[in-house]
Design goal:
about 400 residues; alpha/beta; Lyase, Ornithine Decarboxylase, Chain A, domain 1; TIM Barrel; ten-stranded mixed beta sheet; 21 strands; elongated; binds pyridoxal-5'-phosphate
Length: about 400
């Protein structure tokens, strides 16, 4: 078939949204959550919804899942405000750092503040006092991540200071692991370091002993476990766990114990928008970096690096067209990519899967895209741009 020729099939094609879209199976997210819940019981579950629900679309995911979680977690204040604007009443922890000037918003919207330093503790107490309210806070203890948080060997001073803060509700205390999963970095794979994680855990216990030594009740929510720790370090579950990537059905790495049954909920779909014969020696796309030595049948897909399909993957990815994997060829453009089908096995309008599983069983996983892009699977998910519509289904 020649490029762009109208025919009967084209006339009957539904085109309600952009052909390139993410289909999110909300029921699968709920099944993943149920599997996590059953595994960590009786610990509570905070689901991490930061970064547009790991790319899955906060607006669709959050209201659907909120009734089934104990806590919602985000990284920044704006994400929490989005959740409140949706009308969600659940407790929300903002895990990232905050500035004193942001604290009034926490009070206005009943958000939970992470306290990482004596400075923010004092600012929180002062702001709550001025507002005549009590503010919910969780202490963040740095046990070896060296990012943000009161370092474990200085934690006692912070906890001591908090004893005189009558306008704060000390609801939680937490830490975060630096090496509980494999880190996929360009040209290097860093395997998890469980002995470092155990050392972090020991430091966290040491900090918690403050309460025992003073005969004071512990903050009711002690938490530490991200996805990898949920799977690999059951001793880190405490009162609450904080799953991110496993809630979305993706294992944090290839090493994590498969102790729960989860499955991805996301399929990145598109359709063929153009097809043609590319002649032998006729180079394709910017820079003319690819050409075939024989005539081949190629198709064009309306998805590119502006959608989060990394340009640096050019010439490496496989793309599923009509249930079979084919090579992407030439430079990935801002809005389009070319796929070499060799023979005429697809036409305009046919189904394309860039990420996820086809009905045929063929699948492209986030870790595949990560390997082609020289990054980690987390970045693959969060990099899918806002331009890609999210379509929510239940199945
Ligand atoms: C503080 C905190 N807790 C939990 C998570 C969830 O991590 P994961 O997606 O590995 O479960 C994150 C994500 O980076 C985080 O920053």
């Amino acid at each position: 078939m020649g490029g762009g020729q109208p025919n009967d099939k084209i006339q009957s094609m539904p085109a309600p949204i952009r052909p390139t879209h993410l289909e999110i199976n909300l029921s699968q997210l709920r099944r993943n959550l149920a599997a996590i819940r059953a595994y960590v019981h009786p610990a509570k579950v905070l689901v991490m919804l930061k970064a547009n629900a790991y790319g899955h679309g906060l607006m669709g995911v959050a209201p659907y899942i909120a009734p089934y979680v104990d806590y919602l977690g985000v990284a920044i204040l704006e994400e929490a405000l989005q959740l409140r604007e949706m009308g969600l009443q659940k407790p929300i922890l903002i895990a990232g750092g905050s500035l004193p000037g942001q604290i009034p918003a926490y009070l206005d919207y009943d958000l939970t503040l992470t306290i990482s330093s004596p400075l923010i503790l004092a600012a929180a107490e002062q702001a709550a006092q001025q507002a005549g309210k009590r503010l919910k806070v969780h202490f963040k203890i740095d046990t070896g991540m060296e990012r943000a948080g009161q370092r474990w060997y200085e934690a006692e001073a912070l906890l001591e200071q908090s004893l005189s803060c009558s306008h704060l509700v000390i609801e939680g205390i937490y830490t975060h692991f630096a090496n509980s999963e494999t880190i996929e970095t360009p040209g290097m794979i860093l395997l998890p370091n469980y002995s470092y994680a155990s050392q972090q855990l020991e430091r966290f216990h040491e900090v918690l002993r403050f309460y025992e030594k003073r005969s004071l009740p512990l903050p009711p929510l002690r938490h530490a476990a991200n996805s990898a720790a949920i799977l690999n370090l059951p001793e880190s579950h405490f009162d609450m766990v904080r799953p991110g990537i496993i809630f979305y059905g993706i294992y944090p790495d290839d090493e994590a114990r498969r102790v729960i049954e989860i499955a991805p909920a996301l399929t990145w779909k598109s359709q063929v928008v153009y097809s043609k014969i590319t002649q032998a020696g006729s180079p394709a796309s910017y820079g003319s970096l690819w050409a075939s030595d024989h005539a081949v049948y190629t198709v064009t897909i309306p998805c590119g690096y502006a959608d989060g399909y990394f340009r640096r993957m050019s010439n490496q990815p496989k793309i599923i067209v009509n249930g079979k994997k084919y090579p992407q060829v030439g430079q990935i453009c801002m809005d389009q990519v070319i796929v070499n089908l060799e023979a005429e096995t697809a036409e305009v309008g046919d189904e394309v899967i860039l990420l996820g599983q086809a009905a045929s069983g063929e699948a492209i996983q986030p870790q595949d895209l990560a390997a082609w892009a020289g990054t980690g699977r987390y970045e693959v998910l969060t990099n899918i741009s806002a331009r890609v519509p999210r379509v929510f289904v239940e199945k």
